[in-house]
Design brief:
- By secondary structure, the chain is an all-alpha fold.
- It has one domain.
- 69% of the residues lie in helices and 0% in strands.
- The protein has 11 helices and no strands.
Length: 193
């Protein structure tokens, strides 16, 4: 899962939102350096990733991409699933996507001093370019994947995979709609409110 899904799954608890957002910048046992709530958010993020990476429905999408995109298929699938979450948003949320994005940016922005420097930089770019809202459009996913490709040590054109999503939307949407409710249920125990 990528940013939109992680923030959605974190629910309304501020610490879970922060922890989910910063988790990729917090390695190993460094999560213990944070408050209990933020630590829970980091662990929740890790559990989301573990569940996804081991779920046969999610892996159907990954395997569909592997012949062309190899080891990058998981990253691409995460981006596809954020796109599909944004496009199926009304099935999962009572508030509209634009308001959710605005609320997420606000929560993260006011807590940025609690974040590692890497997460602060990501947040800056995320807000300036409104990544969360852009995930609703294939061009937004394409730009995100292109940006990731350019930042990698060895360039790999992950953005070309969006053609696969545009040509086979029903296959990926079916996987997503079968998988995502299972993921929601799986991480429910992290929420206390």
């Amino acid at each position: 899962m990528n940013f939109l899904a992680h923030l959605y799954l974190a629910g309304k608890e501020e610490d879970l939102i922060i922890g989910n957002f910063i988790a990729d910048s917090v390695k190993g046992k460094k999560y213990l350096d944070y408050s209990e709530g933020i630590s829970q958010g980091i662990l929740m993020h890790r559990e989301i990733d573990f569940f996804s990476d081991n779920n046969p429905i999610y892996l159907k999408s990954v395997h569909r991409l592997q012949p062309k995109y190899g080891k990058y298929s998981g990253i691409i699938t995460d981006m596809f699933f954020d796109y599909l979450l944004a496009n199926n948003w009304q099935q999962f949320s009572d508030i509209n996507l634009e308001k959710f994005c605005k609320n997420s940016y606000s929560t993260l922005s006011k807590n940025k001093k609690k974040m590692p420097e890497e997460s602060q930089m990501i947040l800056h770019h995320m807000m300036n370019n409104d990544w969360l809202s852009s995930y609703k459009y294939s061009v937004g996913i394409r730009l995100s994947l292109e940006g990731m490709s350019k930042r990698m040590k060895y360039y790999f054109p992950m953005d070309k995979a969006v053609d696969e999503l545009e040509n086979n939307p029903e296959l990926y949407n079916r996987d997503f709609l079968e998988f995502f409710p299972l993921l929601i249920k799986h991480v429910e125990h992290f929420k206390t409110k």
